[in-house]
Amino acid sequence: MSEQPDINALLFEDSARVDGGASAKANGGVSTCATVAAADRVELSVPELFDFAICLDYMARSSSECLYRLSETAVERLMLIGGKPRLIRISCPPATGRLTLDRLDGEPLTAEDQTELARYVSDWFDLELDLAPFYRLVGEDPLLAPLIERFHGLRIVGIPDLFEALCWAIVGQQVNLAFAYTLKQRLTETYGTALSWAGNRYLMFPTPERLAQVSQEELCSLQLTRNKARAIAEVAERITTGEISREGLLALDTEVARERLMKLRGIGPWTADYVGMRCLRHRTAFPVADVGLQNAVCHMAGLDRKPTVAELQELFAPWAGWEAYATFYLWRALY
DNA sequence: CGCCAGGTAAGGA
DNA sequence: TCCTTACATGGC
Fold first, then answer.
1. Of A86, A87, A216, A297, whose CA is between 20 and 30 Å from A202?
2. What's the Rg (C-alpha) of chain A?
3. Whether A289 CB is under 7 Å from strand B
4. Is A64 within 7 A of strand B by CB distance?
5. For residue range A118-164, what is the model confidence (pLDDT) as tens digits?
6. What DSSP line would sit under A12-55, residue for residue?
């Protein structure tokens, strides 16, 4: 919500002014800065308690991810910026300690494009969050303290695009993750956009406009269930018409946005919370019925059975306000 | 082969 | 409001 203007304010022409992220007060003391170091490069200063390598480790959890390509020190992704596909590499060279966004392919970035890219990446890695209060809160917790040590600097790696986030959540309902990745790849291969560059293939998730044109029968032929096909068709339609948008949902109170999402067919509490957590950045998003979360707590707490919903709610009560991060760190412990 | 998987809708008490 | 059950299929 209040994040929108900040990146603009922090985009400096003069890179010499960027040092010392503490100068960035516009966002409540969070130290994200952006600068234009060259026409094809944008640099973001990173906040405290952020570790890019730890985030890359998380992103490497599946080898079937089709929407980005990882290397040891960078992630590359084809993304729509200024309405045009751009291939971007994100790295964090130790020499500068800044998140470095390089355009590898596509048209050169205008100033507006650079702002949009900076905002996307800042959102992707949740750079504008001050994680210190969470770490203080759970620093002595028997369950979470080991996790914030083991995954120190991990941010909730988001899915900034609402349509992509909704589709990923829908596809992931009640199937194992491996199959969810397969379904996402089929959707992307069939209806998305591809680019070949330096011997590698990069894919963009299909637009809602494109998927809105696809019949549910055709979606079912990709081995989506009728429920999933209908849910994706409905989401594509509502986003295409503008009835649902990320901006619109961000303007609503957390609970209202959640209810709004759940009015859509195929969007239940789990999907609404998942999207709240990974797209809308709701800090209180808590997919309490999530099987993976139940398994994580079962495993981490050494229980002989999965915890009930009531038990999870009791466990999470002390972490009020940080449910999304508690969930994400527990998930992380599973993979 | 059987059980589980980062659920949801629909039908019934 | 709160319980069942069907949905559909891959992975192990």
1. A216
2. 20
3. yes
4. no
5. 999 999 999 999 999 999 999 999 999 999 999 999 999 999 999 99
6. ES-GGG---GGG--TTTT---EEEEEETTEEEEE--SS--HHHH
